[in-house]
């Protein structure tokens, strides 16, 4: 791989895999019902596991193009969800009109680590890794 190193793809794969298993753990094992914003973030996180896995198995320079759109949109949803959780955005303008409110806190570790925060960290790390790889800061050793 020239533009994006296999290390970047591997790290991005690990982060997306952990995020995917984490969200499945919270919903399937802990029985936390996902809100609408959580579903939107899942829609953009779950395919990343497959895209990065394919990027590892069949190295392709287009892995960046395939993944960056999903990462950016998912990142915006996670930012929006965190602004809602920190009460910067009023709850009246959120899409959660039915079911579980988007402001529901299932976990709150250390006073700030919530499920939307974990999503934000995951999307942010992948976004940073992809841009570092695209700019050539982290190159494969030859």
Automatic annotation (TrEMBL):
Membrane topology: Multi-pass membrane protein
Localization: Membrane
Molecular function via GO: protein-disulfide reductase activity
Keyword Secreted: no
Keywords: Chaperone, Disulfide bond, Electron transport, Membrane, Oxidoreductase, Redox-active center, Transmembrane, Transmembrane helix, Transport
Chief localisation class: membrane
SUPFAM superfamilies assigned: DsbB-like
GO cellular component: membrane
Classification via Pfam families: DsbB
Family membership: Belongs to the DsbB family. BdbC subfamily.
Name this protein carries in UniProt: Protein disulfide oxidoreductase
Organism of this sequence: Malaciobacter molluscorum LMG 25693
């Amino acid at each position: 791989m020239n533009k994006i190193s296999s290390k970047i793809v591997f790290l991005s794969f690990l982060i997306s895999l952990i995020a995917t298993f984490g969200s499945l753990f919270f919903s399937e094992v802990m029985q936390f019902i996902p809100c609408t914003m959580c579903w939107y973030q899942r829609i953009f996180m779950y395919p990343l596991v497959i895209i990065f896995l394919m990027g590892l198995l069949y190295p392709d320079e287009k892995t960046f193009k395939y993944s960056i759109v999903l990462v950016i949109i998912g990142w915006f949803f996670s930012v929006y969800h965190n602004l809602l959780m920190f009460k910067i955005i009023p709850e009246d303008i959120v899409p959660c009109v039915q079911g579980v409110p988007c402001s529901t806190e299932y976990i709150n570790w250390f006073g700030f680590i919530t499920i939307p925060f974990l999503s934000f960290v995951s999307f942010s790390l992948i976004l940073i890794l992809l841009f570092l790889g695209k700019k050539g800061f982290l190159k494969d050793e030859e």
